[in-house]
Design a protein that fits this description.
Elements: E1 2-5, E2 15-22, E3 32-39, E4 48-51, E5 68-70
Antiparallel strand pairs: 1-4, 2-3, 2-5
Length: 71
C-alpha cells in the first residue's frame, strides 16, 4: 500500500487517488492513469492513511524502460 497525508489545514472529505505511470521524474498530463481508489472516510488536517495495495495494468504497448509511479 501507500501512505497518503493531508497536509492542508482542513479535513478532506470524499476523494479519489490516482496512480500514474511516468517515464520521468515529473507528474504531467502525458502520464498514464494505471490505477485508482476512492474513499469517503474523512481525513483530518495533518492526518495520514494507508491506501491499500492496488493491482495495476500497464498497457501492452508500453516501451521497456525505467518508470516511476505517482500517487
Amino acid at each position: 500500500g501507500y501512505v497518503a497525508s493531508n497536509i492542508g489545514t482542513g479535513a478532506a472529505g470524499a476523494r479519489r487517488y490516482g496512480l500514474y505511470l511516468s517515464a520521468d521524474a515529473a507528474l504531467d498530463a502525458g502520464d498514464a492513469l494505471v490505477g485508482q481508489w476512492s474513499t469517503s472516510t474523512p481525513l483530518p488536517a495533518g492526518g495520514t492513511e494507508i491506501v491499500p495495495a492496488q493491482t495495476v495494468t500497464i498497457a501492452a504497448g508500453t516501451a521497456p524502460g525505467t518508470y516511476r509511479l505517482f500517487l
